[in-house]
Amino acid sequence: MEWNFDPFSNNSFNHYGNNPINASHSAGGIIQRTQSPKVWGGTTLGVVYQDGVMLAADTLGSWGQLARYRKEERLYPVGNFTAIAYAGDMSDFQYTKHMLDSLMIKEYYINDDHVLSTPHVYEYLSRVMYHRRTKMDPLWNTFIVGGYNNGERFLGYVDLLGTTYQSSAISTGLGAYYAQPILRKAVEGREGLLTEAEAIELLNSCMRVLFYRDCKVINSIQRAKVTAAGVEITEPYSVSSEWGFGEGVRGFGSQKQ
Amino acid sequence: MVSRVNVPKGGFNFDNYQRNLILQQNGYSMPKATKTGTTITGMKFKNGVILGADTRATGEALVQDKNCPKIHRMAPNIFCCGAGTAADADKVTDMVASQLELHRLATGRESRVTTVLATLSQYLFRYQGHVAAALVLGGVDVDGPQLFSVAPHGSTDKLPYLSQGSGSLSAIAVFEERWRENMERDEAIELVKDSIKAGIFNDMGSGFNIDLVVIEKGRADFYRNIETPCPTIEKIGNYKFQPGTTAVLSESFRNFVTITEGDAMDIS
Questions:
Q1: What is the mean pLDDT of chain A?
Q2: Do B170 and A205 touch (CB under 8 A)?
Q3: Strand pairing partners for B53?
Q4: Domain of A194?
Q5: Overall number of domains in chain A
Q6: How large is the ipTM?
Q7: CATH label of the domain that carries residue A170
Q8: Residue A120: inside a domain
Q9: Which residues form the Proteasome beta subunit C-terminal domain (chain B) (predicted)?
């Protein structure tokens, strides 16, 4: 049925195999890397406050259901005024770190006193993410990019599909369900009015809720703050948690003892 | 030959299950049940239990009912919020409520929350999750304030604060942050309202108004639409036409029936 020839359909018998899905290495076709992510970073949070931007993430690299890498740093500085937090595949993040470092170094060597600011880094990263998605070879990550440049605060989200958006409070993964309502309530309408202490308390509170309710979050978190003074990433620390709520409970129904 | 009398099998009749599967494979799409797409919560406070719910009923991506009541009265001292398929939640709670009333008439005693719990969980387990009702059940009886949740497959949970429905994650986050033991009534009401609001504003399956019931020993206060965080705007135009707006140009009468005197109807 030559007149029904549809080069991009998988259903009809296509003599020439134009659909990239049917291409193979030997045919000089597409190359695919991460398609089934193995080591996984969980939820991340970001919030805009008075002096700049604050990001938080736990320090777990999960391997399926196993809590495999418990001191995995998921926050990374890019230059002096930008920080990124990652969720998703760890190996793709390591590649991204290298890629952004190379970018900053190359820009530095142009030697024109211009440093890439956060919106530039964000734009670069989003273009790369979308480009990789178009090639059906994504960097399987969700990034939160935060920065402070000349009085301007920046907080953006970019994911493996190349979807981007900016907001005063961002959360990824299950944080979008548990933490986002709390972040929105605290931040919306008071953008940039949050003090540093309030922002720290807010992020700790959200990470605590996530530790309670998300199976793939451990009680070891890091915070990054980006202000006029630069990027500061804390050492991993724990938040307090309450486990006595069920002390008097017996059984799951009418049992009393 | 003696014909066998077919004794009806107990439990759910799965006979059509295979047929439905084949129909689906052949392209026939199953009718979609109206889901409540809900945020329902419950918490224990100093003197009792508070249950809260939103009022949006959805059918896939459409809102079917903007003000549907999700808090059901099981007994004067026991209330139940229902999430999941609207019909399942409504009918199951109605059914158990009527059984409870008969039981109260037979025993002459106040109903107990654990009675409702046992009835609901045993019924839902028998139907293996096909009756898709997720319930938050609370009340105050002789054993004090009690709060339970029942999942569609029949499992039960006994906790000081609970949430169910699509907005349950947003709501439970609010409780995890702010719930404390022995909260005062007003503070507890605010907390439950905030938990439902978290669902209303952050979950697309929940919305509109907040219903609340506060159950204490010997009294239950049901607040229908205690808060309307998404108020509808007053219509600017008034579409009521005054009588006489349309002029009557002519009238004509035609009798289609002949009226005659008759005998009075015998209603003895």
A1: 88
A2: no
A3: B40, B211
A4: 41-233
A5: 1
A6: 0.78
A7: 3.60.20.10
A8: yes
A9: 234-256
Q: What angle do CA A101, A102, A104 make, to 5 degrees?
A: 65
CB contact under 8 Å between B177 and A209, yes or no, is yes
Which residue from B173, B176, B116, B171 is spatially nearest to B149, judged by alpha carbons?
B116
Q: Are residues B173 and A209, on separate chains, in Cβ contact within 8 Å?
A: yes
Distance CA B193, CA B73 (A): 19
Task: Concatenate the DSSP letters of all residues of B42-101 into one string.
Answer: EEE-SSEEEEEE---EEETTEEEESS---EEEEETTEEEEEEEBHHHHHHHHHHHHHHHH
Q: Alpha carbon B50 to chain centroid distance?
A: 16
**pLDDT at res. A27:** 42
* Strand ranges (E), chain A: 39-41, 44-49, 52-58, 61-63, 66-69, 75-78, 82-89, 141-149, 152-159, 164-166, 169-171, 221-227, 230-233
Residues A185-205: tens digit of each pLDDT: 999 888 889 999 999 999 999
How many of the other CB atoms lie within 10 Å of CB of B201? 18
Of B114, B172, B202, the CB nearest to A180: B202
Higher confidence at residue A191 or residue A14? Answer: A191
Query: Per residue in B143-181, pLDDT tens?
Result: 999 999 999 999 999 999 999 999 999 999 999 999 999
**Residue bearing tokens 């797409």:** B37
A143: exposed, middle or buried (C-beta count within 10 Å: 0-12, 13-18, 19+)?
Answer: buried
Instruction: Tell me the domain boundaries of chain B.
Output: 40-227
The DSSP-derived string for A119-138 is HHHHHHHHHHHHHHHHTT--
Q: Is residue A257 in some structural domain?
A: no
pTM of the model: 0.80
Give kind and range of the element (H or E) at residue B145. strand B144-150
Say if A251 falls within a structural domain. no
Partners of A185 on chain B (C-beta within 8 Å) are 198
Structural domain contains residue A5? no
Residues of A in contact with B157 (CB under 8 A): 252
CATH T-level topology, domain B40-227: Glutamine Phosphoribosylpyrophosphate, subunit 1, domain 1 (3.60.20)
Q: State how far the Cα of A2 lies from the Cα of A7, in Å rounded to an integer.
A: 11
Q: Which two tokens stand for residue A133?
A: 């998605």
Residue of B nearest to A243 (CA): B176
The pLDDT tens digits for B57-93 are: 988 788 888 899 999 999 999 999 999 999 999 999 9
